[in-house]
Amino acid sequence: MTIGQILALLGAAVASIGAGIGSSRGVGLAGETSAGVSAENPEVNSKLLLLQLLPGTQGIYGFLIAVIVLINTNVLGGVMKPVELYQGLGILIGCLPVGIVGYYSAIKQGKVSAAGMIMTGQHPEMSGKGITMAVMVETYAVLSLLLSFLIVNSIKL
Amino acid sequence: MAIVEMKHVDILALDRDKPALLREIQKLGCVHLVPSDTEDATFKRIADESELPALEETIARIYWAIGKLNHYDKTKKPLMADKPAIDETQALAILDRQPELMAIVESLETLDREAGELRGQAARVDAAREQLLPWRGLSAKLSDIATTRNTVALTGAVPKKALDQWLTENTLGDLCEITPVSQERDQAYVTLLMHRSIQEQTMQKLKDANFSAITLPRLDTTAQEQLTELEAQRGDTVEKQKVILERTAAYAGEINAFKQLYDILSVAKARLLAAKNFMASQSTFFLQGWVPAPLTEKVEKQLKKVSPSAALEFYDPAEGEEPPVILQNATVFRPFESVVTSYALPSPFGIDPTAIMTPFFINFMGMMVSDAGYGLMMSIVTLILIKVLKPSPTSRKMLWLLCAGGVATVFWGAMYNSWFGFAPFPSPLDPMNNALPVMGLCIGLGAVHLFAGLGVAAYMNIRRGHPLDAVADQLSWFLLIVGLALLAVKPDVGRVMAIAGAAIIVVFAGRAKSRNPLKRLISGLGALYGVTSWLSDLLSYIRLFGMGLATGVIGMVINILVGIVAGFGPVGKVMAGLVFIGGHLFNAGINIFGAYVHSCRLQYIEFFGKFYEDGGKPFMPLASPSRYFRLEETPLRA
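Predict the joint structure of the above. Result:
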């Protein structure tokens, strides 16, 4: 295995780990709040479920970039393609946006979701606004996903 | 595309017609009552709420009973189903049974009280048992362990180590007898009998050894006998609790009657609450409200029928007065009203954007779900659900919305050539390998969306008689943005448009702020900075590409996994099937939700940001609020 290949795999790991940890923390935080709010007001539970789901998407984005790396390097095909040092470095750099932005945005989104849940608990008709607020944070995760995708996909092996 | 026009209504009627009139208004369900306001001194605000507290208490008790019986109600609740209807005869039958039903509530309350007492008893018995358990082995009667003139008796717990030390080293001396009774973990339970002469010094030693005294009940029995007795009491309580549970459960069959009664009484309560708004003279009363303009004739006809002497007057709202808002769209657009209202109701002077938003909404949703297979699934499943479940109106609208989104998804999925993650056909758009054209398309559609928003704003300005505002605030931006975009293709045309647009903005954007031309120019230049917000608005539409890509790639990954699993013989084939179904269901679910939410966001932030005026108060007519049933007729006596 060459250093280039290892860097490419490291990139896939970084994308998946960063975004994954962020989403776990975000969803976890939102879930705790959801349980608390539901205990007070069980009728809004189903509305809270949507809010809890939102910070989970970053993990999926990270996973997605990781899989694209694995597809492009043909790891999924069974035999990994040779990767030059600079190509590997490029892939690693490409994975950073979704890994890092995914990490932070998922946690922040979890907090916004949790706040939205408390609002929904007191004013169930405002759940739509709570979701909109949380989706605002998501924008940056989507942008980082795109950037990661464009960089990773631009490196032709 | 409409906010329903509202008319004021004033109604003056005889007091004796009040119940009938109120019932009729409630049945019509289209009069939004407001506190009456008249300067005529003969009219006073009436505060006849005498019935209200009692009714509210009854309703609360019934609600409590429903909650209680819900645990024992074993009938299946159909998913999403519409509320069953009750007609007038059924409602009257239930009202006839009200005394009987309230008697049941009373017995439920008694049972609940008894259950509470039993819980208390059981807890006391348990505590007593807990205390006596270590003394089970004590052969003496509990009352025999007593202090006499010359001896002192003690019971208590001491750490085992200390006890061992006492016994081996005889620390307490010969005048103190130690009897270990039992041990539990590192605690030993002992009885001590000592001569009074050494009481003080022994007490000090006990204290040093962490001895804690336990006072046992002075009973004429041994601990073991008492425990048996408590055991029996406990069994008795359990038996009684079981009986109470059975008696409570026996009433579960009446839960429907309770729910019906709850709804019928709630309707009566709504009427009593509404009556608070009235003003009254000696024998007439006066009420005011809002009626949708198209319904005024119907309201007049129906109310005249029950109260021929009533005087009704309909008139337009005064200048600047804000009527309540209700949206009314053609049937096709109705499911999408919820998208608008879950943001905020439009102001009564604004515009209902439902119809113009709908095509954008479903297409954006389709681009983000972006898998034709999922789209087919969405449409077919929602259609089946609508047919089979006969859902309530709210769920039905949601299902229709998803169904329409599904159709758009099939189209965009076919364009992206993604069918359950497979790419069987040659495709015009390939987000995976040729991303730039697809991103361009997304931003282009975004621009169309934003310009549509601008168009609505321009339309509103023109309708209000400010065509110049439409030029200064909307056309200018349109020219500037389109011009900037054209710079890349047709530089000469683009330059002219962009400069024209920018010039209008610089000259006019500050017109409301100041009369000083220099100040206006400065604030006009500041307004040009708004180009950045246009840039971020446009970039926001990249999410159409990002979300669509995510669906496609995850679908592809699922298929790769399926391919790997399918390699492991016949078991692998079965597993592969499960992975395929489960994986795609998960992917579809999470992406449909994401697409819905992000499509909403694009409307709320980017689109509405260009024109939307919110802040309308919802139209809330006096109607029949019901939780469990649909009341077809308001019973006469309630």
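The CA atoms of residues 97 and 147 of chain A lie 7 Å apart.
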